[in-house]
Amino acid sequence: MTARTLVVLRHAKAVHTSGLADRERPLTDVGERDALKVGAALAGMGLTPDLVLCSPSVRTRQTADLALPDAETLIEPAIYEAYPDELLTLIRRSDPEVRTLVLVGHNPGVHELVRQLADVDGDAGFPPGSFAVIEVDGEWAGLDAGREIAHWNPKKH
Questions:
Q1: Pick from 26, 30, 105, 122: CA 20 to 30 A from residue 11's CA?
Q2: Residue 11: what are its φ and ψ, rounded to 5°?
Q3: Mean pLDDT (whole number) for 83-100
Q4: Three-state SS for 5?
Q5: How far is the C-alpha of 157 from the C-alpha of 37, rounded, in Å?
Q6: 92 is in which domain, residue-wise?
Q7: Closest C-alpha to 60, from 70, 52, 48
Q8: Backbone φ/ψ region at 135: left (φ over 0), alpha (ψ -120 to 50), beta
């Protein structure tokens, strides 16, 4: 079997401003710092993505740009407000050559996706800027389960 790595990342902390469309909400200063920490944490784990699938919202794009500035990023409109099954469908369409895939999205979809894919004891939560690293056996097209090998939360780091 061929092992692959899926990183499921929730965007970092975003502003809440009345009158601003949800998709247009940028990161706060804390969110920007946390996104940089995400990048450092992933690099420290030796994880270099072959591809980043990112929601089109401002906060997800900023998170991806700050955390993974050199990665090939594909803006995928379907990630915004997606349910776990919709996210899984997108992942399954990934090129078999992609070994490490990062998905940058929103709660509750990303959190539920992690819970669905990796049967983990307890629930560490998924606040803004959190990510889970899931080891996957086989091709993306057949993905239905994996093993969570890391869970990172900016509030704890």
A1: 122
A2: -50, 155
A3: 97
A4: strand
A5: 8
A6: 3-156
A7: 52
A8: beta
Tell if the pTM clears 0.70, that is, is over it.
yes
CA–CA gap between residue 126 and residue 115 (Å, rounded)? 10
Task: Return the structure tokens found at 109.
Answer: 């979809």
Higher pLDDT, 92 or 20: 92
Burial of 75 (0-12, 13-18, 19+ CB in 10 A): middle
In which order are the strands placed within the sheet that holds 100-105? 73-75, 51-54, 100-105, 3-10, 131-137, 147-152
88: CATH: 3.40.50.1240
Distance, in Å, from the CA atom of 98 to the CA atom of 7, rounded to the nearest integer, reads 12
Number of domain units in the chain = 1
Query: Does position 121 have pLDDT exceeding 80, yes or no?
Result: no
Q: What is the mean pLDDT of residues 11-24?
A: 94
The residue with tokens 């009158």 is 19
pLDDT > 90: percent of the chain: 89
